[in-house]
Amino acid sequence: MISAALYDTKPYDREYFQNALFHEKIDWQFHEFRLSASTAATATGMDAVCIFVNDCLDRTCIAQLSKAGVKLIALRCAGYNNVDLKAAKEFGFTIVRVPAYSPHAVAEHSVGLLLTLNRHIHRAYNRVREHNFSLTGLIGFDLAGKTVGIVGTGKIGRIAAKIYRGFDCRVIAHDISPCHDWAAQQGIEYTSLSGLLNESDIISLHLPLNSETYHLLCRETFKQMKQGVYLVNTSRGGLIDTTGLLEALKADCIGGVALDVYEREGGVFFEDHSGHILQDDELNLLLAYPNVLMTSHQAFLTHEALSEIARITTENIIRLQANQPYIDETVL
Prior knowledge:
Residues 5-325 form the D-isomer specific 2-hydroxyacid dehydrogenase catalytic domain. The protein is of the alpha/beta class. It has twelve helices and twelve strands. The strands form two sheets. Strands 8-7-6-9-10-11-12 form a seven-stranded parallel beta sheet, sandwiched between helices. A five-stranded parallel beta sheet has the order 2-1-3-4-5, covered by helices on one side. The longest helix is centred in the last third of the chain and has 20 residues, at 303-322.
């Protein structure tokens, strides 16, 4: 039997991995703490480790995993910006991920965030529960006829674009590898990033985080946007420079911000901090703005997505033992 350790786990992780296909062939170890250089020794004797978005596999951690005898690093997510790929390659690791567990889940959540923020559904819900039926301050705008800029037209971005087209929005897009045939079929126009920023009433980010996309939205790019623009980010927090975003919010340049991610979410998201004061001043400021809506990296959190994450990850770990090709995309 092959052995694998899952890190940064929650009850739903155990439920889905224990029910996943071929789960009986794997000796699972579930850890609630994150994998990092300080916890890597817990992987001793494991054939594989399974990590999530806020685990930190830097060079030191990877060296320790190699020393511990680990052969496979399996990411139960699409992004891999938290892994030192150069170090992993040097130590001979195979890294697999789940690139398309449910693009619908993330795209639908991003549109849901925008609808909630624009129509003040969260505020109205709280009012009505307190028997306050006033409509003051709850005015939104029609999506129909608005220009939506989709930055990144991979699987998730394309689905989000299609949903917005269903609202009768004009959709424009930017991608370093545009798919013109798809765009023509959907009635979508590709444009430059600056063109998208200038024209969009709503901007939705659907990009991986890397050296080219880090702080894609910053002081300089915020200045190129339309007054009152709405921003949506369900990809990676590092795509947005939080300091620049706060400045733009304070200057009343941005109409609203809907976030499922935050650039310093490690150690905060997925945890209950209701009993004490957050030590991140910028996050506290973001949460204080009435036109900022934030969820805790839950865009992926659907039954379909969790089932697919567990299935693909489990099958890849089984294939390590059987020396078979891995399914879907392999990072290294």
